[in-house]
Amino acid sequence: MKRHFFKFALVATTVFGCRSAQLPSSSPSATDVGSPSRAPSVGGAVYAGDRRPAVFPAAWPYRAGRRSVFGTHGMVASDAPLAGQAGLEIMRRGGNAVDAAVAVGFALAVVYPEAGNIGGGGYMVIHMADGRAAVLDYREIAPLAATRNMYLDASGNLTNKSIVGPLASGVPGAVAGLTAALAKYGTMPLAEVMAPAIRYAEEGFVVDSGFARSVSNNAALIEEFGGKEVFLPDGKAPAPGTRFRQSTLARTLRRIAAQGAAGFYHGETAQAIADEMHRDGGIITTADLGRYEPVWREPVRSTYRGYTLFTMPPSSSGGVTITETLNILEGFDSLSPFGSARYVHLLTDGYQRAFVDRNSQLADPAFSHVPMAELTDKQYASRLRAGIQPMRATPTADVERSMEGTRADGAKSLREGMQTTHYSVVDSAGNAVATTTTLNALYGSGVYVSAGGFFLNDEMDDFAAQPGKPNMFGLVQGEANAIQPGKRMLSAMSPTIVLDRDGSLLLVVGSRGGPRIITSTSQVILNVLDNHMILSDAMSAPRVHHQALPDTLRVERNGLEPAVMDSLRAMGYAVSWTGGIGLVNAIMRVRGGYEGMSDPRSSGMPVAW
Ligand code: DON
């Protein structure tokens, strides 16, 4: 119960607690595109193809035709404009999108420490203008001393130790990932792309109300561990308008800039992490850190109505689940008008079936066989599509039974996370990077490596901490995702790059929101590809969420007309309103440049030049 309560407290305090860092006064202003849904060309954005005005329910808070940002040379869409500025700075100096993405990643660790990180991990999808595509998995791994039942108490009950405190952390992958991406696809020295982040840490950045609120909302967690001296001096969050410096973090970043990943995984930083662990009963050792490796994987490359998608394979479930859903939907000639009961029905039933597979089949491929080819196969999707009843909900239990013949049974494994951050980057050559990174909960496990100046993740909670038993959200996680030493915990992060029918870059997109990452990212894609929305409408549009279990359809509050809600209930769905589904940062190619949009549900903001 305590664990349950704690998690909900975190949810309540985050309220998708996005915020923006203050821009330096010298920052270039991005160009607004005005209200492009009413015209094919406004303020610079000219839409290729068929874009149509969107219509949302009257009570929906985000209107159609919102302003987005237009740029001709390059763009970063992220939750923290100051981090975006780091990316622009690098591109202006001649860096490509990968150089810029790495700069953004390190800058987020400074200016957005609740989710940006060097103590966590993530995934990066890269599409180069010359056609090369790559995906990098720098997810955390379970420490070597991790054990299957490490989060159970003597009576076999789940404790909150997978969420809070030193046992909650996986071995961080962020620094290994960012440096590996730079080495393979970047053009600049590490020290150069890290320079903005180091400057932000050394010179500080001006605290805005969002940052102050984020720290003060999470003061209880931060206070428990070493972060209080930096984040809560005199017991209070830094006041808006003051300058926030992180000199210890700056020294760690300088070590990384000088030594590469070794500056984190060996020597002083590694020892600082191990000492922090040792002090508080954690289990990550210098041996764990020394053996961490990011993994270049084959992208999930799929097609949808002639468009091409590049997404993440396991250890993230994101790419496979999105692909399976879209494969199911592709078999319908059209999806019915956006916001209609049939539209929601088809989407929901696609998600429901894809999540059944997600829940039971997906895990770290180094530890379990993942039937990738079958799950992403269009024939397989058409068999699943055949089970969708016209205008009638199918209970998840029936869907599972009907899928048992084709898929091995497995337990369900879905849990909702608290805080993550996605950023999309494009450069003038057409190179693109989609990256999602996280500490899991806001400020991760709360454990702050005092001698290193950063928070550690609580990603161990993404494992099946108690296989076969309901988790705090009433869900059951599968054996495939049980804790094993050295294993990556299953993620929902879904950085995705979509190519137009002619093979040119169209969309760079991703989200945060635990399993809602999958549904929010894919709905923005569907809004652009199927519903012909301009990017800002695609982002503003109301979203729905179904994750198989619990067998409920969540709809963003006031996101559907009351009559549509009634129809869905009559069709047998357990429908309920919910808060925001995901926070997306996306960039779309338009004629003459790029249009960028941060989720209107957040205070993120794209920056462009
Ligand atoms: O990897 C995952 O799926 C989770 N750790 C992500 C958590 C998350 O997105 C929280 N954000 N709101």
Blueprint (SSEs and pairs):
Elements: H1 2-14, E1 31-32, E2 41-42, E3 45-46, E4 69-71, E5 75-78, H2 81-92, H3 97-111, E6 121-127, E7 133-138, H4 174-185, H5 190-203, E8 205-206, H6 209-217, H7 219-224, H8 228-231, E9 243-244, H9 247-259, H10 262-265, H11 267-280, H12 286-290, E10 295-297, E11 300-304, E12 307-311, H13 318-330, H14 341-361, H15 372-375, H16 378-386, H17 396-404, E13 419-426, E14 432-440, E15 448-449, E16 454-455, E17 496-499, E18 505-509, E19 511-512, H18 516-529, H19 535-540, E20 544-545, E21 553-556, H20 562-570, E22 575-578, E23 583-590, E24 593-598, E25 605-608
Features:
609 residues; alpha+beta; nine-stranded antiparallel beta sheet; 25 strands; 34% helix; 17% strand; disordered N terminus; binds 6-diazenyl-5-OXO-L-norleucine
What about the largest sheet? 9 strands, antiparallel
Distance between the termini: 50 Å
Any idea what the shape is? Answer: globular
Number of beta strands = 25
CA radius of gyration is: 22 Å
Please state the average pLDDT score: 89
Provide structural commentary.
It is a single chain. With 609 residues, this protein is an alpha+beta fold. It contains 20 helices and 25 strands. The strands form six sheets. Strands 1, 4, 11, 12, 17, 18, 19, 23 and 24 form a nine-stranded antiparallel sheet that branches. The chain has a seven-stranded antiparallel sheet with strand order 10-7-6-14-13-5-25, covered by helices on one side. A three-stranded mixed sheet has the order 20-21-22. Helix 2 packs antiparallel against helix 3 (97-111) and helix 5 (190-203) packs antiparallel against helix 9 (247-259). The longest helix is centred in the middle third of the chain and has 21 residues, at 341-361. The model is unreliable at 1-43 and 407-418 (pLDDT under 50). Bound molecules: 6-diazenyl-5-OXO-L-norleucine. 6-diazenyl-5-OXO-L-norleucine binds next to strand 13 and strand 14.
